[in-house]
Structure formats: C-alpha cells, structure tokens
Write a structure and sequence with these properties.
Blueprint lengths: L4 H19 L14 H17 L3 E2 L5 E3 H7 L5 H6 L1 E4 L5 E4 L4 H10 L9 E10 L11 E10 L5 H17 L5 E7 L3 H16 L7 H9 L13 H5 L10 H16 L5 E2 L11 E9 L7 E5 L3 H4 L9 E7 H10 L12 E5 L2 H16 L4 E3 L6 H10 L4 E5 L1 H6 L1 E6 L5 E5 L3 H8 L1
Parallel strand pairs: 1-5, 7-8, 12-13, 12-14
Antiparallel strand pairs: 2-4, 3-4, 5-6, 6-11, 7-9, 9-10, 10-11, 14-15, 15-16
Length: 441
C-alpha cells in the first residue's frame, strides 16, 4: 500500500531541514574561535610577540597558499603530510597550489625570493597564523589549526642558535604561566653519518618484517628514520630495542650535539634524551626536540635544525644553516583551560554613557566619537531605554562614572556625571564633558 501523500511530504521536509542544518555547519575538522575564547588566543599571541621582541625576532607573514612543490621537495614525498594530508587545488592557469601544511619551507622560500640572504646574518623570524592538514580530527588537532614559531636562518651552524631557539620556545610558554614543562631532545646526525644509521635500522627491522605494521614495511625501504616515529601499538615493543641514532653520529655531529647540551646545562634547562625522537619531516638534521607539559598528553611544540632544506628546494647555494621551532596554538589554549590560566583582559572603560529618549540617543551616538578622538574608552547600551537598566549594566561593568544624558540635558546642552562609588552627581556643560572625564581618570 503506498504511503500517504502527507507522510511523504513530511519526510521530504525533514530531509530538507536536515540538509539545510548540515549546510550551516563548519567543514569537518574546522571550527569557529568564539568571542569567549578570544582572550586566551590574544594572550598566546602576545606571549609569542613579547618573546620574539625580546630575542630580536622579526615578524613574517607568508601566503596561506604556496606552490605544491615547495612542500613536496622540502618536507619529502614519503611523509604523511605530502602523501595524505595536503589540501591541493589546481588554478585555472594550471598551477598546483596547496593550503600550507606548515611554515618552515615557505619561510625558506621567502628568505631567498626576497633577498634576505644578502642582509646581515643570521636572519631571525617569527610567525603566527593558520595552517591546514587533511587528517582525522581529534582533541587539540584540527584540519585548520594555528601555529606560532621562531626561525633562525643563515650565519653559521653554531650550536648556540639551537639552544636559543629552544630557549625562546620555552620562554614563550613560561610567559603564559604554563608550568611543569619538559624538553626531549635527540640528534639525527648529518647526511654522512645518517647513511650508516639508515643501514643499521634497516638491518634491525628486517628481522621483524612479518610483525611490523603496513606503514612501517613501506617506511623500511623508503624512509627508515620514520620507523622510529610510528605510533602503532604492535610496533612499539620492536621500536624499544631499535638502534639509537646517537650511537652512530660522526665526530662533528657528536661535537655539535654536545655543545647544544652544554648551553642548555648552562641555562639550567632540564632535558631528557629521547633516542626515538626523529620528527616527521625529511628536512631535519642534527638537533631535534619536542616540548611537553605534565598537564597535557601530547607535545605542545617541537622543532630542530634543517640545514639541507634550501638544497631540497632547489636553491643553488647548497646549504643554509637554519633551526626553528613551532607550537600548536589550539593545544596551548586547551592546556590553559585545564590549568585555569586566564586570558588577556579587555581594556576596562572608566565611564558608561547612559541615554534616555530618542534625542539623547542621537546625541550620545555622536558624543561617543568625541571620546574616541580623545582616546578615552567609554561603553554604552544604545538599545536600552530605562535609566535603571542602564545603571545596572554600568554597575556590572564596574565603571568609575556614569554619564547620564536625558531629554532635559539635551535641551540644556549639559550632561550629568555620576560617581558610581558614592552616587554623587554633578551637571557639566556637554561641550566640556570630555575634558571633565579626562581630569577624573
């Protein structure tokens, strides 16, 4: 028996309503940063900026869209980011562009394109902005996410720069009052000693080829170092007994790593050696590190040295000494909530402008701009008509004075200044109210 027409229409309406509701949702893995969260974000932004200013890093903003080859060459075609996670688009002109999945490769591109290599070296840069990776969303990890970071490019491959990058990163978190920080550090060597280690790790994993995960079977031949980056449970017992990179470092790499640790010791920065820390990107060499808090399950940030990245990008100059660190802002904000760290407070207004009646509302609207020109912050509630309701808001905002403008005051070109602490009121000429308020601040 066919369904009644009314029931069909109802189902069609429900489907349309469901589709309409879905169309009004943000894309999967992307979210709105609401006004209630903004003070936390502003605090993170300020901490990164203050740290950058103190250690003499200059701000750089690279395009959100970059050419695909910047990351295919720089990060490495065998990495998860390039193989699975990049948002790729093709322009009408045939260019392959990607929404930037990280910023280091783009910064090296900008460094050479804009002639920064001809400036006094090293060049110290910092950034704050959005990045994009097509991965499974989870707590603290989104498809659109935000990072801030510090980079030192050019000059010498001096270990002091590795230590300063680590120091700047830790200080930026301490600026936010984040406690119980820990640093894990390792060295993955240079292209010379890494070849020796590459053979050793392949030999070791060959014995377990039947037991490791599918991804590790592929990594064993394509990118053996990434075997140590595997998170699959079945591979963890095998990884625990794998050869350590630090045992196969050449003399210059051993010396470099020892000096980095000496600088950290001199700063009394505690650290622990992590033999399995390699980071997930092909461009890293020598120092790699990650920074954690006891109150959060994952790394807040990490980085390392990337002296070969310029060469991977096809720059004629074969080597650009460089080191950097980046931090996940979403993770830091989440940790701040866990640790009950307050956000950046909004600048408090000293006065609340109250208006009663349409003529007063029009006059108040213009008067607000006079305060703006004078650099005096006032707040208002233009939509409320009741004096009591507006006084209630003024009291809630904890302002020092209320400026009351009614129909009589408009007619007399005057305004009432009310002291919110003791209730004392004084009527002053409207033309002098800005100066009167300034005197009382």
């Amino acid at each position: 028996m066919p369904k009644p027409l009314k029931q069909k229409k109802q189902k069609k309406s429900e489907k349309a309503e469901k589709e309409n509701k879905a169309s009004l949702q943000s894309p999967k893995g992307m979210r709105d940063i609401l006004p209630i969260e903004q003070p936390l974000w502003e605090k993170v932004k300020k901490a990164s900026q203050d740290t950058a200013n103190f250690y003499n890093f200059s701000k750089i903003d690279t395009p959100i869209l970059e050419k695909a080859e910047v990351f295919e060459r720089g990060i490495g075609v065998s990495t998860d980011i390039v193989e699975k996670e990049m948002f790729v688009l093709k322009t009408k002109g045939g260019d392959r562009l990607v929404l930037r999945p990280e910023n280091t490769a783009g910064i090296v591109r900008a460094y050479f394109e804009n002639g920064m290599s001809h400036m006094p070296q090293p060049t110290k840069l910092y950034y704050f902005g959005p990045f994009f990776r097509h991965e499974q969303p989870q707590a603290g990890r989104y498809r659109q996410f935000h990072q801030y970071g510090f980079e030192i490019l050019g000059g010498e491959d001096d270990p002091v720069y590795d230590a300063q990058i680590i120091l700047a990163g830790i200080r930026s978190l301490e600026e936010l009052k984040i406690k119980n920080l820990s640093l894990q550090i390792n060295s993955v060597g240079c292209r010379n000693c890494r070849q020796v280690y590459r053979r050793k790790i392949q030999e070791y994993y060959r014995r377990f080829s039947a037991k490791i995960c599918k991804d590790c079977k592929r990594r064993a031949s394509v990118n053996p170092l990434r075997l140590l980056d595997c998170k699959n449970e079945k591979c963890q017992p095998i990884k625990e007994d794998a050869p350590a990179t630090i045992n196969y470092l050449c003399a210059p790499c051993r010396s470099h790593f020892r000096e980095v640790l000496e600088y950290l010791d001199g700063l009394n920065l505690p650290y622990s050696l992590n033999n399995f820390l390699v980071r997930g990107l092909d461009y890293y060499n020598r120092t790699v590190f990650e920074i954690f808090s006891e109150s959060y399950p994952g790394a807040l940030g990490g980085g390392g040295r990337y002296d070969y990245l310029a060469e991977l990008l096809g720059v004629k100059k074969s080597e650009l000494p460089a080191v950097g660190v980046s931090f996940g802002v979403e993770r830091i904000v989440e940790l701040m909530k866990i640790m009950d760290i307050s956000g950046l407070p909004k600048p408090k207004a000293k006065a609340f402008l109250i208006q009663i009646g349409k003529p007063a509302k029009k006059k108040a609207f213009l008067l607000i701009e006079e305060f703006h020109k004078a650099g005096i912050k006032v707040i208002e509630s233009l939509g409320r008509e009741s004096l009591r309701a507006q006084l209630k808001v003024a009291d809630k905002e904890e302002v020092e004075m209320a400026l009351i403008l009614g129909q009589r005051e408009v007619f007399e070109e005057s305004i009432i200044i009310r002291d919110m602490k003791n209730g004392v009121q004084e009527t002053v000429p409207l033309s002098k109210v800005v100066d009167e308020v300034r005197k009382r601040l």
